[in-house]
Every structure is written in structure tokens, then in C-alpha cells.
């Protein structure tokens, strides 16, 4: 197990410095679920699970405001984005990018705020090798969506 991890670290380090090769070898997918909630948590007082937030616009924003990619959640609140690993290296994604839900929470539940947007940073969910030519499939996901009242479209 330890040797596998060391191998992957070396592999990722090598891939970060050779962007042309990366495009053919690496696939990075960002996916997750958006809930109709200011913090994604259970409603402890009432013991309710938040509803899913369907038809919500999910943006990948890097740097201060730059929208790199976007998609819409499906009927289960699920979104999935594939990014170009040459432009959006794993390191940049983890350090400099975040997910922003550009649809206000009041859209899914009128009693939730119409000001501010949900946002989350990214973390590594899984890494695997598979498919034709042994592509490295990197899966990233949100650390947790939290309402940020300073965020605008
Ligand atoms: C989501 O969008 C589809 C197509 O525009 C629409 O038919 C559906 O009613 C919407 N669902 C919700 C929960 O807004
Ligand atoms: C939403 O996408 C997920 C993942 O692809 C899928 O499992 C789920 O069935 C989809 N839900 C709807 C309502 O399409
Ligand atoms: C809407 O949000 C309020 C406040 O969080 C909650 O009490 C209510 O159950 C939500 N409504 C639905 C339909 O989920």
C-alpha cells in the first residue's frame, strides 16, 4: 500500500511537469451532489435530510472570478465536469479553484436565502488506472458546499 502511494506521488509529480503527455494519459473528473441547504448538513433539530438541488448551475471558478467550466445538476442534484488536465493541473485545481453554485438557494426553497451562493473547495476523492491505454482517472469532489453571502454571479 505504501509503495503504491509513493508510486502515485512520483507519477503525479512527473505528470505535473509534462503537460503535453498529461492530456493523453490523465482524465480529471469533478463530481458531487448539491443539496438544498446552506451547509449541506442534516437539520438536526427536525431530523430532516435536505432535498437535492436539481437544475442548479455549478461552475468551476479558478483564481478570483474566472469561470473555467460549468454544468447543471440533474434531477438527483448530481453534477459532473471533465476538465482539461493540461490547463487545470491537479495542483491548480486543489489550490486555486472552487465550485460555485450560481443558482441562488431560494430557487429550490423559497425560505432559504436569495443572497449569496454556495461554494466549496475541492479535494481528491479517488484515483485509478483503467480504460483503453491505461488512463489515470482522477476523481475530485467538493469538500462541502457552504453559503457565502459575498459571492455574486
Ligand atoms: C428542471 O428543468 C427541466 C427542464 O428545463 C424541467 O422540466 C424540470 O421541471 C426542472 N426541475 C426542477 C425541479 O426545477
Ligand atoms: C443523476 O446522475 C447520477 C449520476 O450519473 C445518476 O445516478 C442519477 O440517476 C441521475 N438522476 C436523474 C434523475 O437523472
Ligand atoms: C425549506 O427550508 C426550510 C428552512 O431550512 C425547511 O424548514 C423546509 O423544510 C424546507 N422545505 C422543503 C420543502 O424542503
From TrEMBL:
It comes from the Eukaryota. InterPro entries: Phylloplanin-like. PANTHER family: POLLEN OLE E 1 ALLERGEN AND EXTENSIN FAMILY PROTEIN, POLLEN OLE E 1 ALLERGEN AND EXTENSIN FAMILY PROTEIN-RELATED. This is Phylloplanin-like. The lineage of its organism: Eukaryota, Viridiplantae, Streptophyta, Embryophyta, Tracheophyta.
Amino acid at each position: 500500500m505504501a509503495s503504491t502511494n509513493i508510486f502515485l506521488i512520483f507519477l503525479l509529480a512527473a505528470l505535473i511537469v509534462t503537460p503535453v503527455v498529461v492530456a493523453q494519459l490523465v482524465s480529471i473528473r469533478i463530481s458531487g451532489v448539491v443539496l438544498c441547504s446552506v451547509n449541506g448538513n442534516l437539520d438536526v433539530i427536525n431530523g430532516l435530510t435536505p432535498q437535492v438541488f436539481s437544475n442548479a448551475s455549478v461552475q468551476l471558478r479558478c483564481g478570483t472570478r474566472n469561470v473555467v467550466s460549468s454544468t447543471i445538476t440533474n434531477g438527483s442534484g448530481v453534477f459532473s465536469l471533465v476538465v482539461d488536465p493540461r490547463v487545470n493541473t491537479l495542483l491548480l485545481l486543489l489550490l486555486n479553484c472552487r465550485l460555485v453554485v450560481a443558482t441562488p438557494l431560494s430557487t429550490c426553497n423559497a425560505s432559504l436565502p436569495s443572497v449569496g451562493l454556495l461554494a466549496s473547495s475541492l479535494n481528491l476523492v479517488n484515483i485509478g488506472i483503467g480504460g483503453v491505454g491505461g488512463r489515470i482517472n482522477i476523481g475530485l469532489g467538493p469538500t462541502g458546499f457552504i453559503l457565502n453571502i459575498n459571492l455574486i454571479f
